[in-house]
Amino acid sequence: GFNITKRLLKRNQLIEQFIYDPIILKIVLIILILSSSNHRNINHIDMNLICDDSLSIFRAQNIYVELLWKYILSRAAVEEDVTKLFNILIMCILYVQNVDICIDGYISNFRSEIRQMEPTMQNMWLKTDDEEDNNDIIVDQAITP
Predict the structure, then answer these.
(1) Where are the alpha helices (DSSP H) in the chain?
(2) Averaged pLDDT for residues 97-106
(3) C-alpha span between 31 and 58 (Å, rounded)
(4) Which domain holds residue 42?
């Protein structure tokens, strides 16, 4: 509870330092999305098994990492500054992933509570017109003798 909240606040502070440059945020987001370890641990599914060609995803991720490097290089005067910023970005990415894994572990302790909430959550979703028509027919059949 409290420890996770502290870590989330720290994560937000780490991310906020890059808000000034939305291009960096967009590229980092793409890199995170292409990361095979960035998934929910529900039922411990191996995300690498979902894709037939995981190397193509890895190559795409490498392209975006290189794009990030070149973008930062184009914005900085000295390569040493680029290295420092890139290092900070990588540490931030790893910290965010670590916090996400911690949150997943915490939430997985409440599986029975989540299952109990499922009917309530289903009632909150908007229904399509077809579903509403089916419900009307069912209600009409129940009322009509």
Answers:
(1) 2-16, 22-33, 54-75, 79-108, 111-124, 129-143
(2) 82
(3) 10
(4) 2-143
